[in-house]
Specification:
By secondary structure, the chain is of the alpha+beta class. It has one domain: paralog of FGE (formylglycine-generating enzyme). Helices cover about 30% and strands about 10% of the residues. The strands form three sheets. A four-stranded antiparallel β-sheet has the order 1-2-5-9, with no helix packed on it. Strands 7-6-8 form a three-stranded mixed β-sheet. The chain has a two-stranded antiparallel sheet with strand order 3-4. A hairpin with a 2-residue loop joins strand 1 and strand 2. The chain is globular and about 45 Å long.
């Protein structure tokens, strides 16, 4: 009888874990995989996402500063043009000196895909795929998939309209179902893989071209062509290259 009660308690606790959606692990949370309907233009009606862990917050200026101090080739005066354009860390005063008005806890921006990818690799992590990013971006504070909620979509659209606060710190937006902050409402975020909207069929699985790697956005995934947020994401992904650095484009890391 005692063994049965103990086993029942484990089952109930396991069910509770699935409902809450995440397990805290340092600065990352565990994401339980599943399926979702991707953006328009994809080659499948549904995409399956495997389990992975994602950082709770975007990478900050302070964290990236530690990275460039350790890896000099990623300092502003040292990085080669192939890996970062002229906007790279443009708001810093020097190679290892933040700007006067920059908070160490604000998300780092003006970084290229190459530098973001290298940062994650040095942490034993990687950039999220588009599918992973879109999967967690569906979530509101209480629901795994809130894309059909008008209030959720309105929040994202309102974010587009507000003047951007350059020094806003990580953790300043809501915590979503998975326990992640700032997926929406702070900065756009780089993803690992190329823009699959522009590549159809099995070719999107075979192409490995850095110039085709694009970013996820602070917008909700949708297959509805009337969704303004979806058009915004399409536009930003179609306009960047891997060496671009933008003042509202940051990143966060994930791990298998």
């Amino acid at each position: 009888m005692i063994k049965c009660i103990f086993r029942l308690a484990i089952v109930l606790l396991s069910g509770l874990f699935v409902q809450t959606g995440y397990g805290q692990s340092g600065n990352a949370v565990d994401i339980i995989g599943g399926t979702y309907i991707p953006l328009y233009g994809r080659d499948s009606s549904q995409v399956t996402v495997s389990d992975f862990a994602m950082d709770v917050y975007p990478v900050t200026h302070g964290e990236f500063l530690e990275f460039v101090i350790k890896y000099k080739k990623w300092q502003r005066s040292e990085v080669i043009e192939l890996f970062a354009d002229g906007n790279y860390l443009l708001d810093w005063k020097g190679d290892t000196i933040l700007g006067d008005k920059i908070s160490e806890n604000a998300p780092v921006t003006n970084i290229s895909w190459f530098s973001a990818k290298e940062y994650c690799s040095c942490q034993g992590k990687r950039l999220p795929t588009i599918d992973e990013w879109e999967y967690v971006a569906m979530a509101s504070e209480t629901k795994l998939d809130a894309r059909q909620e008008s209030t959720f979509n309105q929040y994202i659209l309102d974010w587009y309209e507000r003047p951007k606060q350059k020094n806003q710190e990580v953790g300043s937006t809501f915590k979503n179902y998975w326990g992640l902050y700032d997926i929406h409402g702070l900065v756009w975020e780089w993803t690992y893989d190329f823009n699959s909207v522009l590549i159809s069929g099995e070719s999107r699985k075979d192409v490995d071209n850095d110039s085709d790697l694009f970013c996820g956005s602070a917008a909700v995934g949708a297959s509805d062509l009337m969704n303004y947020a979806a058009f915004m994401r399409y536009a930003i992904r179609g306009s960047v290259k891997a060496n671009y650095a933008m003042r509202n484009l940051g990143f966060r890391c994930v791990k298998d």
